[in-house]
Amino acid sequence: MKASETKATLSFSNGGQNVELPIYKGTMGPDVIDIRKLYAQTGMFTYDPGFMSTASCESAITYIDGDKGELLYRGYPIEQLATNCDFLETCHLLLYGELPNATQKAGFTKLVTNHTMVNEQMQFFLRGFRRDAHPMAIMTGLVGALSAFYHDSTDITNPKHREIAAIRLIAKMPTLVAMAYKYTIGQPYMYPKNDLSYAGNFLHMMFATPCEEYKVSPVLERALDRIFILHADHEQNASTSTVRLCGSSGTNPFAAIAAGVACLWGPAHGGANEAALNMLHDIQKAGGVDKIGEFIKQVKDKNSNVKLMGFGHRVYKNYDPRAKLMQETCKEVLSELGLENDPLFKLAMALEKIALEDEYFVSRKLYPNVDFYSGIVQRAIGIPVPLFTAIFALARTVGWIAQLNEMIGDPEYKIGRPRQLFEGSPKRDVQPIAQR
Ligand code: CMC
């Protein structure tokens, strides 16, 4: 952290003593005012529910310029990574800070593929779930349960444990998601095939059966790989902050990542891809493109609680760069599958066009986010709608673990412990029950 020469001065209208606060500069983005000593100096907390103006940590992993619509992993633009690299190269970048050279890539790929199988007992644990359980309910349980199976990588204070837990999580998430899917449809689990790529192996575990040869389509493999890259990290979003906060207590990495999975499930976060596709389905059922006007009216009605899912973002006040790439992939996949006239894609394009011209969305700077098109791509690949958020979790795992390890590796890290503005009853005495 580089201290700025400028300092902030906090003054009080009641004549209380001014407080001088240091300001730090990052390599890019807004400076931060250091308020760590504020409570000791003034007896006051700051108040910022929703973290609208609060940087919760220092990080060197991901940078977003929301006004420009720019996303960088370790300095590299997402467009370049999505076009020139694959997911495992991106994982290496996020975890270790640099893109691998060919030798490093081969070594890293070997390391990850060595860990793709899960303990055979996990399938018995999985069997305890109802067949109609939501995949994210299953994933929250399975990921948390990894800590019961891999005792040799649960000490978060040990860098070796952290590294092996990271590799295990990245390697095993596809296996777990595919197992959760196979379980819900009553098909046998397919073991990982380590001669396939990361995305290819996932497609195989999802769609192959022991009865027939399954050939991975290179276009779908590339599309899925791109989905993984685009979702790999997104700085201090809700689930990543959850992972950091959970991990700050010293809990094991599997437990911390399970907390991230649980947070991601919500429709305002990772659950938006499922919600966006369901929304498109509903509009299609109600009459399709002709019903967009009516739907937009509902979205604008504050009493309706209807949102245009896949639109809007806390940080992006411009087109989400991931949405652009996802739209491109969407076109490629639909054309490969001969689905150029897919009614949901056409509906999504029409909805986007109308929303982008509407004063409500323009004035609030609401643009499509990554989830607007990712559902259409996943559906075209054959992934069932309830599994969409689990795919997001699979891809985000590397970001979560990179952020967690960055935090734990920092000698100055502390347990996360926000404070509050108490609005409840002052101290009072318990009355005997007859007098209450
Ligand atoms: N549809 C309609 N109105 C919206 C939407 C939307 N999708 N998003 C924001 N608004 C309105 C909101 O009602 C508010 O209006 P007003 O100023 O009149 O009260 C204004 O825009 C500002 O919104 P906000 O809720 O204060 O913004 P936020 O930063 O708290 O919320 C968000 C961000 C992503 C939760 C929200 O935009 C949203 O719920 N979008 C739909 C869900 C979605 O697509 N989520 C995926 C996010 S990207 C993937 C990920 O990171 O998980």
Describe this structure in words.
The protein contains 18 helices and six strands. With 436 residues, the chain is mainly α. Strands 1-2-3 form a three-stranded antiparallel β-sheet. The protein is globular and about 80 Å long. The model has no long low-confidence stretch (mean pLDDT 95). Bound molecules: carboxymethyl coenzyme *A (CMC). Residues 234, 237, 268-270, 272, 299, 307-314, 364, 366, 369-371 line the site of carboxymethyl coenzyme *A.
Main features:
about 425 residues; binds carboxymethyl coenzyme *A; about 50% helix; 3-stranded antiparallel sheet; 6 strands; about 5% strand; mainly alpha; globular
Task: Describe this structure in a few short sentences.
This protein is 50% helix and 6% strand.
